[in-house]
Design brief:
Number of domains: 1
Distance between the termini: 35 Å
Strand order of the largest sheet: 2-1-6
Number of helices: 2
Bound molecules: zinc ion
Length: 86
């Protein structure tokens, strides 16, 4: 899925503006980084609307999502529903 990878990278560009790091919950469960177990994340909203997604027939991805970036290690987790800021 080379094209999808490029598309997602393009969507991740321009993420510089961010809220201050905070804790979040999704589905009533506190979100932790799956890599470093960190609890502080920066939140970014991004459109997943890309030419790449259309090319590989993933138009269902063409909506906004919320990305949480681990403050400690930088891992990105995507949520289709906006997580609750705590
Ligand atoms: Zn982490």
């Amino acid at each position: 899925m080379k094209t999808l990878g490029r598309a997602l990278k393009a969507g991740v560009k321009g993420f510089a503006d961010a809220f201050a790091p905070a804790r979040y919950q999704a589905g009533g469960v506190q979100i932790r980084c799956t890599h470093c177990k960190g609890e502080m994340f920066r939140e970014h909203e991004a459109l997943l609307n890309t030419t790449g997604a259309t090319l590989v027939n993933l138009d269902w991805l063409n909506k906004s999502g919320t990305a949480l970036l681990c403050e400690n290690c930088g891992l990105i987790q995507w949520y289709a529903k906006k997580p609750d800021r705590k």
